[in-house]
Amino acid sequence: MNKNYQIQHDMNLNTIKKKSKMLSVHSVTSMVNIFLCILRNLCGLCGFSPAFSVANKLSGLNSSGYQESFMKILKSVSFFAMIMVVQVLFAGDVTINEIMYNSPGDTDIEWVELINNSASAVDLSEWYLIDDNNDHTHCTLSGTLASGGYLVVARIVNQFHTTYPTVTNVFSIGFGAGADAWSLSNSGDAVRLFDGSGQLRDIVEYQDGGDWPSGADGSGPSLELLNPNYENALPTAWRSSSIATGTPGKVNSVYTVNAAPVCKDGFCSVDLPTHSENVAVSAFAYDHEGLNSIHLMVNTGYGYMANLMKDDGLNGDAVSGDSIFTAVIPARNSGALVKYYVIATDLIGQTDTWPNNAPTEYMAYTVDYAPPALMITEAMASNQSTKKDGAGEYDDWLEIYNNDSRTVNLAGMFVSSSLGNSQAFELPDVDLDPGKYLLVWADDDTDQGNLHTDFKLSASGEDVAIFETINHGNVLIHGWSYGVMAPDISMGFPSTLSHTAPEYLQTPTPGASNETSELFSDVCINEFQSTSNFGGTDDWVEIYNRGNNAFDLSGSFLSDDLDKLSKWTFPANTILQKGEHLVIYEDALGFSFSSTGDEVIVLTKADSTTGLDYFDYGEQTADHSQGRCPDGASRWYFFANPTKGEANANPSSLENRKSVLPKEICLYPNYPNPFNPSTTISFLLPSEQKVRLAIYDMLGKEVTLVADGKLNSGKHTFRWNAENQPCGIYFYRLTAGNVRKTGKMILLK
């Protein structure tokens, strides 16, 4: 699960930092408004009735009476009480400080470390830990945690003591005990801490990649928070521990007083501009203690020149105050090479860059450049006896074909097993003549030669792609995803005609044309329809037998998810005769087909490991179907008049294959934060997809649905007006496909 959180906006002068002990305001009016919120929350949290009466008294005053009345009331309510409430609401007294979710070895020693970051002891009676599933057993805590003290909560306590015999501050009961016990997922999970009244006190939703430190994913280190005062919902507030087994029960090995700024998630308005186009470059930047400057460094052949980036909503910057800074590179002459990177500097001179290691690493484009017509025409993810490499080994491979009229030098281009990773393996200095093929061994064995990659292909299904050089924008030239692949069965394009979909091939042809290859499967996905924007009750899919004999589909599977291949099973005695069509409706399948183009259709044998057909489709049009034409062929068309259960005919247009490079979904911090009564929430989508954006209170109750529907690729901004909501801490969650990202914000009144 890919999950993320918002950060506190350090550039906002009225920000109350979650972990800070100080409340910064610029006027008595601001102080009163904050104090009112604190007092009202004091009633609910502590049952302190005088606070409620004081809050009501203050709320009845106009602004002209604030200063005098506020000072009088402060005499009757101690300043210590006020600070106590500030700490209750914003200090994050007990904080999730370290997580071991995937320890090395066969036995997974999982644990969570808490730290009391407040100035006084905290009674943990009836507090509890739980993961992201409310049906799991609460790991109920007890005892008192001293100021600055640590408490380790392990999944299996005796296993923890075996691995860490000197650690004594371990809770006696593990979260792996009980009928509905839970564990921490190795691919991403949530750790939630609730107090005795059921209030959510802290939450961390980690993942094993993306912005989160990947070193904690099974290689030994734990996830450590840089500083307990930092927002632990933010991935960049964490590091992999520098000590192999983590530091349970004591100060984190990566602890720092002042962390460097973060500069990331950069993007440009045009990947390969023409000589008449300006290019706006944007990047997300922040610092826990405050930023000094953000600059776009541009090199057009005369060294890097600094250009101040602004977050003012002007000159290409989409929204003011969202921590996304922008500067514009003016149009350049045809053929000009433009290199650039972004650098953020904090108040004490520490820096961070996008991309990392700039200027050694940089982004670039060449004006008026057009990529060559290269294709990945075939791939094999489970080579057991098809073809040996130069070392005599049967390894995975992919095939590059030059469909251009010119010889192409591949030096500096990249091949990848992910459409989202454009710099996986750099190709060597090799010329590929028109109409020729090049075999690249995906064997994770670079010592065997410069055409042996540092990755393997997954037989469970993933991507293959080729990308341009850095100087040519590093854009996607050609790429596609494939389904589950049986041994010695490849997947590739039966022809190099445009808009042809890849097929499973019975007779792989590494280094040669696929036009003579025999197709592996007689049955195929022939047509489907998703009539509404997100799939309606009348969705359907048609299976066709293009072979010469009857085909028994009994026990085979249909799915829209590579991770769940057996979502629907063909009933016993499902025999499809030669040339016969079979239509399965959504109400029988139990799932619909997304119209946004973010899903696939998978047909597998009853063994669930042998793919029969696989189609990765793009955006759909309401009341149109998409299918092969003629039946069983490899070219896909749209049909304005669907031919459900009949021969496909009269297509309306060729299928528009996905060509946009998917990148990670970015959820940005809301602004302002704290806010009253409105705040802005922004996120970036790499492709068109269904999105749900909802607001939750501290108890996890959904209070507002901000957005629910299909959105185009690009940046989207929504404004939430909380005028009718009580002040306090809220969470906003973005859900897009199987990606969930969450932010935290404070409403003051």
Written account of the structure:
- The structure is a single chain.
- The protein has 749 residues and is mainly beta.
- The protein folds into 6 domains: 28-91, no CATH class; 94-240, Immunoglobulin-like (Sandwich), CATH 2.60.40.1260; 262-366, Immunoglobulins (Immunoglobulin-like, Sandwich); 374-505, Immunoglobulin-like; 523-654, Immunoglobulin-like (Sandwich); 679-747, Intracellular proteinase inhibitor BsuPI (Immunoglobulin-like, Sandwich), CATH 2.60.40.2360.
- Helix content is 9%, strand content 33%.
- Helix 1 (28-46) crosses helix 4.
- The chain starts with 27 loop residues before the first helix and ends with a strand.
CATH-derived topology of the largest domain: Immunoglobulin-like
CATH H-tier superfamily of the largest domain: Lamin Tail domain
Task: Supply Rg.
Answer: 29 Å
CATH first level of the largest domain? Mainly Beta
Unreliable residue stretches: 1-36, 38-91, 655-662
Give the strand line-up of the largest sheet: 37-32-31-40-41-42
Roughly how many Å apart are the termini? 35 Å
* Number of structural domains: 6
Structural class: mainly beta
The count of β-strands is: 49
Number of helices: 6
The proportion of residues in beta strands is: 25-35%
Q: Helical residue percent?
A: under 10%
Mind summarizing the main beta sheet? 6 strands, antiparallel
The quaternary structure here is single chain
Mean pLDDT: 84
Shape: globular
Q: From the 3D coordinates, which CATH architecture of the largest domain would you assign?
A: Sandwich
